[in-house]
Design a protein that fits this description.
Keywords: Decarboxylase, Glycoprotein, Golgi apparatus, Lyase, Membrane, NAD, Signal-anchor, Transmembrane, Transmembrane helix. By secondary structure, the chain is an alpha/beta fold. The chain contains 9 helices and 13 strands. The two termini are 33 Å apart. Bound molecules: nicotinamide-adenine-dinucleotide and uridine-5'-diphosphate.
């Protein structure tokens, strides 16, 4: 088994590479390090079955030898990253997805696209099932990410229908865990970093907006189940554990044994109000459901940040 993971030096990509290597696979990560870090995968070289190719997948890339699986995970994913890299985000979702699909076609490999709950936008249906078409503002600030992923889904299906590529689409809901960048700007890394530093914990708006949060190990198990199946998807992968951001902030402060105050900051434009996956399809088709209790997952994440945050420089410092 030989797998290519685009975005393999990122948060989710590095965990996927690790899990594939643990299963005995040979892994090629392809990453331009625009939001990821070579340090995330440094420890994987010791297996002797891991290669990191530093390439921009939007510009095309080649992988020598046979390939059985292509996991297309390259894309800025945090709102602050895709707002900083709007055109790059659109290109990696379009050109990058096409190059990854071409690789799968050329090698007769299974292809899995990392799509997102953001394709549902600010949803008017709750919880979100895969047959909901979504409520997305194409010209709002988040449009660059949401529309790139929606285009990527359509292109993936077109390659399946036109070229017979064995494709699958997963819609990933908010996932967290070790190796998130402390400066990544997403809610959990911010809340954990701020709590550990004794700084104010920043909740946007009144904090009553919700997200459903999944631990990375559960997510990886779901992705690998999708990789092993031949189902086209889209299939939601996430933990239906829904929580408001103000409750989450207070929970992190408590678990980190911090005395940080919770403060309120401006709410981003088009910030979704609710989000929760209906995971019936993942249970039925992939026999997958999340296992790690959220309190344990938060404890594991806080412990990792405690040990690594001060030795993980911001991207701008590398
Ligand atoms: P991340 O920013 O940590 O990882 C993304 C990786 O892709 C980085 O290593 C980055 O350098 C790389 N990359 C970006 N553009 C590239 C390009 N043009 N060429 C090569 N490499 C490129 O983000 P993440 O949270 O690990 O997200 C990984 C994937 O999962 C993304 O596609 C994201 O949209 C999707 N996703 C993540 C979540 C989540 O909660 N983490 C939720 C939904 C979807
Ligand atoms: N958020 C927050 N404080 C922060 C960062 C984010 O309250 O310091 C909010 C954000 O406005 C959103 C939620 O937390 O309502 C989840 O944001 P995140 O960026 O983690 O994920 P996404 O919006 O992409 O689901």
């Amino acid at each position: 088994m030989r797998a290519v993971v685009t975005g393999g030096a990122g948060f989710l990509g590095s965990h996927l590479c690790e899990a594939l290597l643990a299963d005995g696979a040979e892994v090629v990560a392809v990453d331009n390090l625009c939001t990821g870090r070579a340090a995330n995968v440094e420890h994987l070289h010791a297996t002797g079955r891991f290669t990191l190719l530093e390439r921009d997948v939007s510009h095309g890339f080649e992988v020598d030898g046979p390939v059985d699986l292509v996991l297309h995970f390259a894309s800025p994913a945090s709102p602050i990253d895709y707002l900083r890299l709007p055109i790059e985000t659109l290109l990696v979702g379009s050109h990058g997805t096409q190059h990854a699909l071409e690789l799968a076609r050329d090698k007769s490999a299974r292809f899995v696209l990392a799509s997102t709950s953001e394709v549902y936008g600010d949803p008017l249906v709750h919880p979100q099932r895969e047959d909901y078409w979504g409520h997305v503002n194409p010209v709002g600030p988040r449009g660059v990410y949401d529309e790139a992923k929606r285009f990527g889904e359509a292109l993936t299906l077109a390659y399946r229908q036109t070229h017979g590529v064995d494709t699958g689409i997963v819609r990933i809901f908010n996932t967290f865990g070790p190796r998130m960048r402390p400066d990544d700007g997403r809610a959990i890394p911010n809340f954990v970093r701020q709590s550990l530093a004794g700084e104010p914990v920043t909740v946007s708006g009144d904090g009553l907006q919700t997200r459903s949060i999944c631990y990375v190990d559960d997510l990886v198990a779901g992705i690998l189940a999708m990789a092993r199946s031949d189902h086209p998807g889209p299939i939601n992968i996430g933990n239906p554990h829904e929580i408001s951001m103000v409750d989450l902030a207070n929970w992190v402060v408590k678990l980190a044994e911090s005395d940080s105050p919770v403060v309120h900051i401006a709410r981003p434009v088009d910030d979704p109000t609710v989000r929760r996956p209906d995971t019936s399809l993942a249970q039925e088709i992939l026999h997958w459901s999340p296992k790690v209790p959220i309190e344990d997952a938060l404890q594991l994440t806080i412990a990792w940040f405690r040990a690594h945050a001060t030795t993980t420089p911001p991207l701008s410092a590398e």
